[in-house]
Amino acid sequence: MSTFFQQTAQAMIAKHIDRFPLLKLDQVIDWQPIEQYLNRQRIRYVRDHRGRPTYSLLSMFKSVLLGQWHSLSDPELEHSLITRIDFNLFCRFDELSIPDYSTLCRYRNRLAQDNTLSELLELINRQLTEKNL
């Protein structure tokens, strides 16, 4: 769900999108095949016990990308998701529900375990190459 703050920020940023390369990149990449891939793998990541609702798999994946692209530790990534509007808008987390660093770490490790992360990075690189970026 998009909050009033996020909607206002998106409207302001849209006027100056060239100043936000991360958000421009978000528009260039076709996230649908990546989201479909993640949803096919979903069974591996869903917990069996009750608790908080899970985060969007695409949002979690985007956060892992940010961590790699910006060489951030998991605590630094958590902090950046809270404080940087471009990170928050890129990942599309609800601003009141951002994963903590241990959740980000566990998710990244699960992606890396079965080569899912490298396959998804290959998909993104292929898209960027096709668009000459």
Automatic annotation (TrEMBL):
<feature type="domain" description="Transposase InsH N-terminal">
    <location>
        <begin position="20"/>
        <end position="110"/>
    </location>
</feature>
<dbReference type="InterPro" id="IPR008490">
    <property type="entry name" value="Transposase_InsH_N"/>
</dbReference>
<dbReference type="Pfam" id="PF05598">
    <property type="entry name" value="DUF772"/>
</dbReference>
<protein>
    <recommendedName>
        <fullName>Transposase InsH N-terminal domain-containing protein</fullName>
    </recommendedName>
</protein>
